[in-house]
Amino acid sequence: MDxxxxxxxxxxxxxxxxxGKAVAIELAKEGARVIIxxxxxxxxxxxxxxxxxxxxxNVASFVCDITDEAQRKRLVEQSVAAFGDxxxxxxxxxxxxxxxxxxxxxxxxxxxxxxxxxxxxDIIQQVLPAMKKKGFGRxxxxxxxxxxxxxxxxxxxxxxxxxxxxxxxxxxxxxxxxGITVNNILPGYTNTNRLAHLVEKNPKVxxxxxxxxxKRFGTTTExxxxxxxxxxxxxxxxxxxxxxxxxxxxxxx
Length: 253
Prior knowledge:
The chain is of the alpha/beta class. It is built from eight helices and seven strands.
């Protein structure tokens, strides 16, 4: 299926590794011009080189800490200078720290709010005017299954990520007539380096597989395929939705 995003300009946040990287690669395979970013220059350079082999000349990378307002502004400016106005935005962050309520102080909560919520708000505000002017835009937020079903010992994710759902649903209603879709994608337990690290620290994490109807963890390519469809031209009538890519782990509808 041709997703209709050939030469579209796509900015994928936190994309030097993990799910963000997988999405960036998938979009490059579909012919999009992709901007990737991250805080690790070595990982960023390696990912850019990998994407260059897939779509030569259609990838740019910039070091950016998305918790820093000035760096977020510079990232958008650099992206536009590289390829033009951003038409596809995929917001993403690293996973927040695990822990219970009493393990986080007020400064921790402020950091989490900036990381998981304000970073998305800021960059969406920066790219939205050009999308409205063009009459085309795709905004996709990578959140977590925790927004639908809380996960023990992940209170930071359970609490802060849910605010994104209200934002994105409200925004989807505001911009629908401009040809802009706004959706969330909720990764479940997926085979990333972060999950491998969790299993190494606590082998009991593997037991989660028994709570997943498919009895396995997902792959990053499975997740990226779903994300690519949601930001495609083909998905033009899908907006305000939250799609779980979790092997059926969420128990509710």
